[in-house]
């Protein structure tokens, strides 16, 4: 048992997962699951008890038994004790102080990556203020490559998300042209298909690849976010698959609810790698996650939703992904009730993912029945851009007309880039300049570049 006394009240926490849950900043999903602290004082007591806990405890006490969960087995079996050794003597509170110190340089944090377990990282994030999450994440540098180089200092990338409610190629193409004209799409041009079928997926993949080639071999990657089994069948039919996509979670049970397991993810990774379509690298996986997915599937095993989320990052890093995206406010107010909770969760996810060595992006978003609005998203966008987020979404008008939620627009990405003097991927930036869409200072140009883009994108094949 774990305990801490505040004034005359002693709070007792039966096991490690209870302690972690009680120490978590307030959010509606944990209250829905019945794992949250009952009072602010109990939350502080749990945080104090957690701060005194040695990091090594997380190597000896599994939150979900090793025999019952393949994600637990993955976490334990892949842990690098040599990488952990420099911090093995620290408590969780000491670890927070270390991360905020000058000693924790980008190179040092990179060296620690495989010595950290998701539970250690989730625990330390629960002791951090928002400014701590921003400061630590800003130190982390994670570089990935496929047709361009993502994650470097001074860069902010975007996923161009041209979804359409009927997968109409004309509507998708219009959104793509609009987004590229604003410099969006260097992380990926990725479509959530309205119909998850092999013929629809193949048709969209062919359209995207043909467009990319017509646009003077635009140095980016494309993806249709179908289920991994659909992508595997598309590969078997010879479709031009750059990236394999899959939603994942932090327990074996939640992944089963998504229709996947580690063996299937491994098959998808190997099949996509075998195509060798990258030019500057071969990182071919794109994963999406989100706090609340384990709870919504009744697959959380009593874990708080943030700890379950960070365990999903162990799954992602096992497959050396090009992109990982926390769709932070997508599930709804049952899990993150308002703008304050969404902002906190987005900063947590980004920081924890970066500490675990992931190229972490965030879909800065909310559903229309949440107590949040675009001002909250502006705040989170600005904070994440300051923290060095790898990529954000780019949608026409910030409104996804197929998935029916609010995210960030092409203009929002321009705002963040201009405010903080950030640039797209270097290869993509050079392409924008060469084709007259941007000047060498990253400023949007009008005129011949836009006319060229429209002509090339719409010319007959």
From TrEMBL:
UniProt GO molecular function: cobalamin binding; ethanolamine ammonia-lyase activity
CC annotations in GO: cytosol; ethanolamine ammonia-lyase complex; ethanolamine degradation polyhedral organelle
Superkingdom classification of source: Bacteria
Pathway(s) per entry: Amine and polyamine degradation; ethanolamine degradation
Sites where the protein binds substrate: 159-161, 192, 288, 363
Any one Gene Ontology BP term: amino acid metabolic process
Record-listed adenosylcob(III)alamin binding positions: 193, 246, 296, 402
Keywords: Bacterial microcompartment, Cobalamin, Cobalt, Lyase
Cofactor binding note of this UniProt entry: Binds between the large and small subunits.
Reported cofactor(s): adenosylcob(III)alamin
Annotated EC: 4.3.1.7
Protein location: Bacterial microcompartment
Enzyme class: lyase
Reaction catalysed by this enzyme: ethanolamine = acetaldehyde + NH4(+)
Described purpose of this protein according to its UniProt entry: Catalyzes the deamination of various vicinal amino-alcohols to oxo compounds. Allows this organism to utilize ethanolamine as the sole source of nitrogen and carbon in the presence of vitamin B12.
Assembly with partners or alone: The basic unit is a heterodimer which dimerizes to form tetramers. The heterotetramers trimerize; 6 large subunits form a core ring with 6 small subunits projecting outwards.
Family per similarity comment: Belongs to the EutB family.
Name of the molecule in the record: Ethanolamine ammonia-lyase large subunit
Organism (species): Fibrella rubiginis
Name of the encoding gene: eutB
